[in-house]
Amino acid sequence: MKEKGNISIHTENIFPVIKKFLYSDNEIFLRELVSNAVDATQKLKRLSSLGKVDGDIGDTTIEVSFDEKAKTITISDKGIGMTAEEVKKYINQIAFSGAEEFVEKFKEAKDANEIIGRFGLGFYSAFMVADTVEIQTLSYQEGAEPVRWECDGSTSFEISDGNRTQRGTDIILHINSESEEFLNQSRIQTILDKYGKFLPVPIKFGTKTTSEPDGEDEEGKPKYKSVEVDNIINNTSPAWIKAPSELKDEDYLAFYRELYPFSEDPLFWIHLNVDYPFNLTGILYFPKIKNDLDIQKNKIKLFSRQVFITDEVKDVVPEFLMLLHGVIDSPDIPLNVSRSFLQADSNVKKINNHITKKVADKLNELFKTDRKGFQEKWNDIGVFVKYGMLTDDKFAEKANDFCLLKTVDDEYFTLKEYAEKVKDIQVDKDGQIVYLYSNDAANQDSFISAAKEKGYDVLNFDSPLDNHFVSYLEQKVEKTSLKRVDSDVIDKLIKKEEDQKLALSEEESNSVKSLFEKAINKETYQVHVEPLAEDALPVTVTMDEFMRRMKDMAQTGGGMGIYGSLPDSYKVTVNGNHPLVKRILEESDDANKENLAKQAFDLALLSRGLLTGADLTNFVKRSINLI
């Protein structure tokens, strides 16, 4: 038998398109061809289970090999094989998939939809790296003859008698000069590890050396010897395809280590297992990330029937869950012909919503069943929850029940609990409830202490995300504002009806203001003399809440760039009722007055970590002289 002809396509320019534009990366050819081999093997197993194949199908291991001298790469399977007519139908007619006809024929069989053939354009990805592609195939059908097909990348092909003696197919690529990088063991191994690590059929790539027991030595200690064994590159039964009831915690952890061998163990995980109205399996892990948002997001791997597709899953997974790790596998996520990019589709949205719901339900379950454990994990999972509430309204509705507010004293409250805690005492003269918070408890200790002396509570918001979460809470919690504890003196943060009276005359007040302005001598510090309690600090340095918040948001990409470029501006509040201010006024020596004012100001700077460099050195020297 020998036949020549032209491949049935709409344009002779199809091959340049395939080579340059259809696939985003030329290494995809190996994924496509190995996936085809897996599909052919799965079809055979299905036919065997339906009684359509005589006898035992035997070993179905797929083998990938290469010959550097001959410049060939071969993918061999022991699957369904093809007759000459099937080669003409499935190979020569580009974009015709044998799966559609196959599923239709056996649609009465359970799970027939799981069998997908990928002949057609997937096969033609071979021409991205090969000058000539050869097929040697023998169908499983009784009496079938071996067939050889060859094409040099043009629209011409040749079919002749083949030499294969066992059922299955060999795809032989004669690698072009531009793609000789693939004629390398480590390069092929890397691609197979990336795309085929969890394929459902064993994939062999050469051999590897391992050790096995070899008796005992003279001292009775076990001996080992080196042996060559098949290098099987894949785990054919990964955790996510199993039922949750089959797995223990150690199984989930072992699979996580298989995915991320150098990562710290995760906090917990969610096993996805849906078969209606779409098919979805997978395992999502919550990693330990603390407050660091500068992490790699592309840690979730998307598979389709155990074939790795991409780690760009932003359309499938909600934005806030991109921080998770794990695997999602769904045959219902539509892909373009190269299996490389997600397409907009209603199923994608449904899957996205389902994942959001599953995560919210899991977090709520953990909170209700083990609140103490949930609180212990909050420093890690709080980032997920807050991020989700900021970006996903449906998640936020559910998260209201388990989102926690942490105080500087390491106490935890739900949003509802905290509102109840402060509603009576932390309310200003206008009836507005004020939440006080700190983003750096160590440097803001003097402000926190002043708040506590008033009986107030202070929240701990020290995550970069909290700049945005503060604004979110103000929008969502009725009649409530949030103020950072160092944004003003405590009496101004929660202003009550009773105002302090200034003990200084207007002339004395002006004199104090001029004295401090001279001692500070910096335009970025605006001096105000105000009536505060005698036991309040003599000098306090603060930044206006609005300006400070805008600058913080600008630093974390909150769209407030104009504020980020403005110089820092601080308010210096001098307590006109403090004994030290009175002493400064009574000092007869002008130099001593200025020195005391400067010392009081520097103490205020020191209390909030703003005194550095030469200013700090001079402060220490002055302090020593005052002793």
From TrEMBL:
UniProt keyword ATP-binding present: yes
Entries under Gene3D superfamilies matching the protein: 3.30.230.80, 3.40.50.11260, Heat shock protein 90, C-terminal domain, Histidine kinase-like ATPase, C-terminal domain
Stored Pfam families: HATPase_c_3, HSP90
Family from the record: Belongs to the heat shock protein 90 family.
Keyword check for ATP-binding: yes
Taxonomic source organism: Albibacterium profundi
InterPro entries in alphabetical order: HATPase_C_sf, HATPase_dom, HSP90_C, Hsp90_fam, Hsp90_N, Ribosomal_Su5_D2-typ_SF
Domain Histidine kinase/HSP90-like ATPase stretches: 25-179
Record-given protein name: Molecular chaperone HtpG
PANTHER family registered for this protein in UniProt: HEAT SHOCK PROTEIN 90 FAMILY MEMBER
